[in-house]
Amino acid sequence: MTENKLTHKCKTCGAVIKISPEDLVITCQYCGETYDVDFEKIPGHKMLPTQDKRTIKENVIAFLDKNRTDPDLATITEIRANYLPYWVVPFNSHTHYYGVERGSVTRYRTKTRRVKDANGNVRTETYKEPYQVTVWRPREGDFNRNGKENIIARKHTAFYGFNEFERTLYLDNIIDFEYDKIEAAESDFINAEVDAHEAKMDAYGKIENDNRAQAASGLHKLVRCDSDIQTGDPLYVHAPLWEVRYTFENKVFKVSAAGDSGKVVKGEIPLTLKRRILNYIIGMLLIVIFGIIGNVGLGMTNVADTETTGIILLIVSVIAMGFSVLPLKNAFSIQLEKSMEKDIHKDRKKKLKARRKALKKGDK
Ligand SMILES: [Zn+2]
Description:
Number of domains: 4
Shape: flat
Number of strands: 14
Helix content: 25-40%
Distance between the termini: 54 Å
Order of helices and strands: EEEEEHEEHEHEHEEEEHHHEH
Largest sheet: 10 strands, mixed
Bound molecules: zinc ion
Structural class: alpha+beta
């Protein structure tokens, strides 16, 4: 952050507002009115409400508990929300594409075989044997995609857990902006460094890329893709991301939570000496035990009767020994990192499914 603060008098309440030179959208800390760089009012400023501090704290404690870290030994030293600026850009788009699809057709070849009839006479008969051939077909289609694109209005966002936060952010349940609500949550309010015009351009690029990805899904190769995109007036919205710090055995760890759901999106888990030793023992045991089993398996491969069992034992042992990397890695690190990857993964799968569905609908 630069210390070079400018000031400006608020047109609405007359208070002197502090401004950073990089801010392109400014909200008055006293009356909550929002302005652009020319000090013209920006109407319709919205916000995503947040869960209160107590709920966030409870969720962080539950997160530690779930990850086998005794919450009684952890001290929360910092807990605050950052209200991050977003532009929500509504859009309509129509996409037309050409591509190549990979498919297969069944062909038959004529073969002969010798069969015995009921009388025991051997004769030769011909039959058709099916086989698959890969074919490439041209495909053309179009689809409509409408919605809204959330554009972060900061140039650099170095908040812990920011990517996880963004991937779970929908900005659906927004309410009218009120500065009092920010203060009640003891939050940091962050002005935008990206204006509405730039946000629209950013959104245009993202929409085009997503349309291209949707067209390419299910195709072997996308040859041409044209998107006709209309963007509407962006809505200025602030969304809360909580940053929590706690100490455990004299070390500091971070946890982030999404304000609207109150859910932890990412967090660091301390690995105590006890847990590290346990991981070390498990890792070493895996190597030793499966080393022995693997050796036994190797011996068995020399005897015809036990050859298959021996090979299976050998394969299982090699895989199990490979897995010893996981506990051993933990044995030599200070902390673990847990994030909502599962939820995010589910979310992505859902989106992909919806995309495929939309594609099928749009095809002619
Ligand atoms: Zn004001």
